[in-house]
């Protein structure tokens, strides 16, 4: 079963969905992130080297204690669930204890529930162990993590632990030293695109290329966000175009921001300020505007490398001040003024005495 191709698995799920829809049950829609959550390790997109290692563990058994860390929405929880399924098959229900941030996970739970589960006898195939999945482990208190140290050792012949977290440094060092640490990186644009296209075909979504590009631009490598925004756009507008996506995402349209940046590097401060005020007037916050400015600047090819770096520096400082709380229009205007100055030829900086020679 583990050798099943991703297309076959996707096809089967689609068939299952169609079956439930025609069998008379109400056709209420599952969130697509859940409907298309990979079931097998083969279906997981990206981080291929790490996923390959997991596949080998899934086949051979003897899973080490694991920590998977990385940004939100890139497949950490999914990978652990797929691995547990690959290892335990039919015994999954009995042999897996899954605790996430919504469960109580203080010291008492470690002492009672986790220890109790570790002591429980379950008949498993040779080379397989029970698995405790601690999702969002970075939100566990240090005390609860400390309490796990000895438990992990004492029961390691029968129970293995898998942690998923956004920041591995929030896991205390002694636990890190007991685990193999796998880092997931954010997904590339082409990886997100491939998955979105698969879902578009399965759900018969009408879309334009720009629409998908807009989804990818706003998701920044977060597959969950890309799929959620796809579904929201389809639910709200029926057609996935760039305009519709940006309405759903509710962030400034990159084309408008691009015009603003262009006005800056061609020295047209009035135009730039006008564009800024337009965006501000639409109700976007300073943080929305500045973060889109950063992302747009990164992708402009007409800007020289030197200017681009200078732009990013100035935008970065403004971003920092906004995060510190100074999120005013004045802050953004100051940033625009500095950006416009970067590409101005030196002869335009006329010393004050000479220009006001009356
Ligand atoms: N690599 C991937 N391949 C395919 N689908 C993915 C991938 N990553 C995320 N998804 C989609 O996004 C959803 C959320 O993924 P998952 O729960 O694994 O994220 P996560 O990395 O655990 O995020 P968080 O840190 O927020 O818990 C999945 O249900 C799936 O639909
Ligand atoms: Mg998760």
TrEMBL record:
GO terms for biological process: DNA repair; DNA strand elongation involved in DNA replication. Keywords: ATP-binding, DNA replication, Nucleotide-binding, Nucleus. One of its GO terms (molecular function) is ATP hydrolysis activity. It holds the Pfam family AAA. Residues 62-197 form the AAA+ ATPase domain. GO terms for cellular component: Ctf18 RFC-like complex; DNA replication factor C complex; Elg1 RFC-like complex; Rad17 RFC-like complex. It is found in: Nucleus. The keyword Nucleotide-binding applies. InterPro entries: AAA+_ATPase (IPR003593), ATPase_AAA_core (IPR003959), DNA_pol3_clamp-load_cplx_C (IPR008921), DNA_Rep/Repair_Clamp_Loader (IPR050238), P-loop_NTPase (IPR027417), Rep_factorC_C (IPR013748), RFC_lid (IPR047854). The keyword Protein biosynthesis does not apply. NCBIfam families: PRK00440.1. Belongs to the activator 1 small subunits family. This is AAA+ ATPase domain-containing protein.
